[in-house]
Amino acid sequence: MSKCGRKKYMKTNLRQMTMETIDSQQDGSLPDSVAESESAHMQMQTGQNSIPTLAQVSVAGSSTGRGSPAVTLVQLPSGQTVHVQGVIQTPQPSVIQSPQIQTVQVATIAETDESADSEGVIDSHKRREILSRRPSYRKILNELSSDVPGVPKIEEEKSEEEGSPPNIAAMAVPTGIYQTSTGQYNEETELAPSHMAAATGDMPTYQIRAPTTALPQGVVMAASPGSLHSPQQLAEEATRKRELRLMKNREAAKECRRRKKEYVKCLESRVAVLEVQNKKLIEELETLKDICSPKTD
DNA sequence: TAAGTAAGACGTCAAAACTG
DNA sequence: CAGTTTTGACGTCTTACTTA
């Protein structure tokens, strides 16, 4: 896999739009912010962008991340589904050389906005201000929970992790090398399989394989930085640091996904609550109308 | 039953956000 | 402001399901 060309992404800024959408949606209809954005364009700008739709984008085609097919179904918060025509291209990372703007039109809305194509004029600083990433899921959800009673907070630490040192480096003693699904080799730790299963609730899907020549055997026994002399030792230390970083990031990614799931669940439950609330209010309104309006016959 | 597809999970990289 | 944490995106794998 080519790693060097990954700088251009189609970031969805999901959280930003989700919060905005949920907050403004009271009657089950399409929020103004979403409607406006859609009428302009669904603009997917690599690097910094926003897709003005809520959470669920189901793709009628390959789901393996290599770009979307010609027709994409976008499910809106109201449950309405719109067909997005045009290919949402996700070019091969190694092919991308410059920032690209990719736009797709929502089929249900004919009107377009000429200004959507003028993104080249917008300087990066301005875009950065407008489209800057929001704080973490944990932060958003905790803010949400302080505003709305009943919304659970995301715990700082999982209960089963209490009492154990949070630092992965401290608890993991590398004892070998295992190969990941992507064919890369990592240091195997004694805790790795059980920890992985505990974090995801699933059985680990990675097989421990016999080490090959990909990594030097002495990696895990690298000396402390102070005693490094030879270039080989320096290289070993660098490798060790890298493995450590990868291991920490691996765990961080798992945790991040867990938080994201929790966050999405929370939003879904909030939508359900608001829908019920909305229904009740409509019924109440109808009742009051009946009471207030005198019957003619 | 083999081939194709969808969904979910994972590891990794890179960049934004956060922190001391 | 450097180091750390968080998260979007990509590529890959596995599993369940569908279809020819």
Question: What features would you describe in this structure?
Answer:
The chain has a five-stranded antiparallel sheet with strand order 1-5-4-3-2. A two-stranded antiparallel ribbon has the order 6-7. It has helices spanning 14-24, 32-40, 124-130, 137-147, 168-171, 192-200, 231-292, and strands at 42-45, 57-59, 71-75, 81-85, 101-106, 174-179, 185-189. Helices cover 38% and strands 11% of the residues. Strand 6 (174-179) and strand 7 (185-189) form a beta hairpin. The protein is α+β, with helices and mostly antiparallel strands and 297 residues long. The protein binds a DNA duplex (20 and 20 nucleotides) through residues 1, 3-4, 6-7, 9-15, 47, 59, 61-66, 90, 92-93, 128, 132-138, 180-184, 186, 196, 200, 202, 204-206, 246, 248-250, 252-257, 259-260.
Q: Span from first to last CA?
A: 77 Å
How many helices?
A: 7
Low-confidence stretches: 1-134, 155-226
For the largest beta-sheet, the strand count, sense and barrel status come to:
5 strands, antiparallel
Strand order of the largest sheet: 1-5-4-3-2
Order of helices and strands: HHEEEEEHHHEEHH
Give the proportion of residues in helices.
Answer: 25-40%
Q: Average pLDDT value?
A: 46
* Proportion in β-strands: 5-15%
Dominant shape: globular
Number of strands: 7
Q: Could you say which structural class the secondary elements and strand pairing correspond to?
A: alpha+beta
The radius of gyration is 25 Å
